[in-house]
Amino acid sequence: ISKPEDFHLFPFTIAALKLLTKIGYEIVIISNQSGIARGFFTFSDIEKIHKKMQNIFSENGLTIKHILIAPYHKEGKIFPYNIDHEDRKPGIGLYKKFSAKHIVNKNKSYVIGDSSKDIMFAKNAGLKSILVLSGHGKSHFDKALQTNIFPDFAVNNLLSAAKLIKKLELK
């Protein structure tokens, strides 16, 4: 996605995020954005997409305080982002920076994502992982089975992940 008009939430996203915030979770978005390094889009383009996303969240009573991006890719063409960098998932550079400034309870933290990089990121950071099968998740789940990279949990979508977390944490 490189333009705000191409950004859309799954229908269940708002309900999922509301459930997570209701049970006390703070939402932190960590995203690889190699399109910056590859010259497909700019930081300004990403900021416009994030602004649209934040507006949708705000209109629905949600606040996402932390959106962290990794603009790097070793095959990129835009200096200085054309490098292999620990901020890029599955590296945990962004997690290290965030946790240096914020209290993170690893026992109650989850990484929810739709890629094997998200699952490896969670494992590298010592966090629990939930692979959602919506988005790219199904193909990554199949890949994970072939490469022995297993999530702690796999669910259909973000709302299923939120309900699972509620069930696990409110035992």
Instruction: Return the structural class.
Output: alpha/beta
Shape category: globular
Rg measurement, Å: 16 Å
Largest sheet data: 3 strands, parallel
Total number of beta strands: 5
The low-confidence parts are none
What order do the strands of the largest sheet run in, or round the barrel if closed? 3-4-5
Task: Summarize the model shown.
The protein has helices spanning 13-22, 34-37, 43-59, 93-101, 116-125, 137-147, 158-169, and strands at 28-32, 66-70, 110-113, 128-132, 153-155. It is an alpha/beta fold and 171 residues long.
Which terms would index this structure?
single chain; 171 residues; alpha/beta; 3-stranded parallel beta sheet; two-stranded parallel ribbon; 7 helices; 43% helix
What does this structure look like?
This protein has 171 residues and is of the alpha/beta class. It is built from 7 helices and 5 strands. The strands form 2 sheets. Strands 3-4-5 form a 3-stranded parallel sheet, with helices on both faces. The chain has a two-stranded parallel sheet with strand order 1-2. α1 packs parallel to α7. The longest helix has 17 residues, at 43-59. It is globular. The termini are far apart.
